Amino acid sequence: LLVIVVGCTQESSTVVDPLGEDSVATIDGVSIQTALFNYYSLGRLQKDAELLTDDEYDALLEELIEFRLLARAAEDLGLASDAETAAQIELQRLQSLARAMASHHLEENITTEAELQIAYQENLDALSSPQYKARHILVDAEEEAQAIIAELQQGADFQELAQTRSTGPSGPSGGDLGWFSTDTVVAPFSDAVRIMEVGTFSEVPVATRFGWHVILLEDATEQAAPGLDNVRDEITSFVEQRRIQEFLEGLREGAEVIVGGVE
Description:
- The protein is α+β, with helices and mostly antiparallel strands and 263 residues long.
- It has helices spanning 2-7, 34-45, 54-76, 83-108, 113-122, 124-127, 142-153, 158-165, 187-194, 232-253; strands spanning 23-27, 30-33, 129-139, 176-180, 206-208, 211-223.
- The chain contains ten helices and six strands; from the N terminus they run H-E-E-H-H-H-H-H-E-H-H-E-H-E-E-H.
- A four-stranded antiparallel beta sheet has the order 4-3-6-5. Strands 1-2 form a two-stranded antiparallel ribbon.
């Protein structure tokens, strides 16, 4: 917001100012518009200007006056022509306009219930995820993990080995990890669990940043997808993002885009 305020310049008198003519203050005849003040209040304090206390009003107005004074001093020194400053101002302008255009496009193309239903069906697989119940024995060396696997193959009890050999916090409880989904554990561990059969232990040690694991998969189940009402916000966001992407693709197709420097 500071960049926006500092980047403002006085428009020519022949151009209609989109911020209007009403002002909360002037500096050497240059207005600080009421609309600008109201917008600043929402961004700065998340309050409508009419809800501000007298102290809040005075403080925000003083900040805007200081911004305007600093901006004018910067322009007088030619700082607006500095490449880095100009880039910051231009980037802020582009981002603000892009957000405004995206919001306008979504307002003109309201997501329908039918679209939400279609998107929900498209994402059913992602919304439903397998859940696993497992135990593990964590040790520092691969050789030790291999020795534990050998003992298990000879009939040793997994929970007892976990209690006596595991260095992980779940060791005292027999290595019990409870129920989890694969997106809540590190990738090598989750990759191993996905291909295991219930009731089996890993035949080779599984390496992660925590050490070497021997895993026992005790159970697995498929978690049903939540109803649409439970994920309505997420599905709406998915549909809106896709709509903006399609709009962007249309804009790109209608423009001559040349990637690379201009000679």
